[in-house]
Amino acid sequence: MKALIVEDELLARVGMRSLLPWEELGITLLEDACDGREALQQIESGHPDLMFLDLNIPEISGLELLKIIRSRHLSVKTIVVSCYDDFDTVKEAMKLGAVDYIRKFGLSKEELLASLKHLRDSFPEMEVEEESVPEQKSAAQTGYEMRKRVRNIPEEFQSGCCLSFYMVWKYAEEMTDMKLIETIATQYYQGLGKHVLALMWEGKLLLLIREGTENVEVEALKRQIELFITNRCYIGITPYSDRDHETGFFTRLADSIEAYGFYGNREEIVDLETPFTFEKQQTLGGAEYMERLERAIQKMSLEEMDKNISELFDEIETAGNYPVPYIKRLMIEILSRFSDKSAQLGGAIDELEVADSRRHYQKIVNMANLEDLRIWWKEFTKHFATAYFTRQKKSESDIIEMALDYIEQNLSSPIQLADVARHIGVSEPYLSSFFKRVMNENFIPYVNRQKIRRAKQLLAEGKMVYQVSDLLGYENSTYFSKVFKKVEGMTPEQYRKSL
User: Fold this and answer.
1) How many CB atoms lie within 10 A of CB 414?
2) Measured between alpha carbons, how far is 82 from 103 in angstroms, rounded to an integer?
């Protein structure tokens, strides 16, 4: 089976490619598409059986692409890659023919495998290796049922008290400890003779208590949890009645305790009378900020990079009420700017080991505390500057000299831009643009001029045209003659006779 990843963020593409042993599953990944237009070209030329589609892509949007696929009767099954906050758009995508969705942020190996399992069960002709796919519900089924449970509260819990839990973990595996907290909390209140309903929402726990609870009971529960869980666990206490919990009330409570804990508040038990009112997202990390950060990255100034990122964290901490998923999306966007710069210098950020990991995209997604995120960025920029400062300096002083020397030493062979870029240690696009800017001439025309200069010397020494063509690495004398005439305005034979 052939599969296509359609995603405009490089780090997201790399992350998805690294999650599964695709070949072992019998799946061949085609070259990724970074926008809707590239995706359409890939579908029509590569004929993928399966497509992982981010809906928020440039050129042609994900929804428009699905409409085109439907109208042209193209045979490709689509799994939507979704953010937390675009469920209505996902529903529209499902109407247009998408067969499943997976969550983009915090995407796990298990979730991706479950979606493939769902695909195999729904479409038997889609061959995925049986033993590699666990028997569990798909991400779409799980997400839908979770949302439905949180929004459709049973009649007996229409009023009472809601405890919302958020745990600050150091490692993503510790997220499973929330199930242990659920067990402890449920048994604790059942032991008090109270009726409880436990709900999980995006890594947070909501515990509805029909009879309500006192702060002293919550404090005793907290002490029990601490016997088993060493990580910080925040608990929000929110009494509610049937008049309070309008649509989305409980999900907003879960998001509120997440933000409260993520921002590192000192008190771990908090009275949440109402859900937080979150800051408008577009007010943070605007175009002006990104421009300043871009300049710092291009200059490879560690001081300016740290200053810009520190100012952003100060702004986040001062406001204290930006949604956590939004902050993480912004951090991933910033990381992509560093990724672009490393690629420009012929590298990749996954070369860097930061906090014992090279999977920086996943690291940001799994961060559960703002201060840890700030510390991680401080270490990342230090590693980044150390790794790429030398390349940056070389690109500013030695790169042209190295390129010209390589060309001169290899005139007897075919010379490709990729070969020179690899020799110097920079990317092809960077070498191409840098060469043009410094030499005021494109790479290939320059190489041709140098080869023809050498050809004239060989012809003057009495060599025949076909001999010169062979000596300069041309595939045949006809092509050599064509290049020679373009540069000199005459054929090599005419030049030889004019000597």
Assistant:
1) 12
2) 5
Nearest residue to 381 (alpha-carbon basis) of 324, 326, 335: 335
> 340 vs 10, 211, 383, CA distance in Å?
9, 55, 16
148 vs 137: CA distance, rounded Å:
15
Nearest to 116 by CA among 31, 201, 32, 19: 19
Give residue-wise pLDDT tens across range 225-272: 999 888 899 999 999 987 665 667 888 899 999 999 999 888 999 999
Strands 77-82 and 100-103: parallel
Angle between helices 249-262 and 139-151 (to 10 degrees): 110
Distance CA 79, CA 218 (A): 42
Distances (CA, A) of 429 to 207, 324, 328, 343, 391: 54, 36, 29, 9, 15
Instruction: Classify the C-alpha dihedral 150-154-155-157 as positive or negative.
Output: negative
In degrees rounded to 5, what are phi and psi of residue 320?
Answer: 70, 10
Please list, residue by residue across 340-351, b when 16 or more beta carbons sit within 10 angstroms of its beta carbon and e when fewer do: ebbbbbbbebbe
Q: Comparing C-alpha atoms, which of 9, 47, 6, 1 is closest to residue 27?
A: 1
CA distance from start to end of the chain? 63
> Strands 160-167 and 77-82, how do they pair?
unpaired
Phi-psi region of 243 (alpha: psi -120 to 50; beta: other; left: phi over 0): alpha
| C-beta neighbour count of 472 within 10 angstroms | 21
Written as six digits, the tokens of 147 are 């949302």
Torsion of Cα atoms, 350 then 352 then 357 then 362, to 10°: -40
- Which candidate, 210, 204, 212, places its Cα nearest to that of 260? 204
User: 134 falls in which pLDDT band (50, 70, 90)?
Assistant: very low
pLDDT tens digit sequence for 271-288: 998 888 876 655 676 677
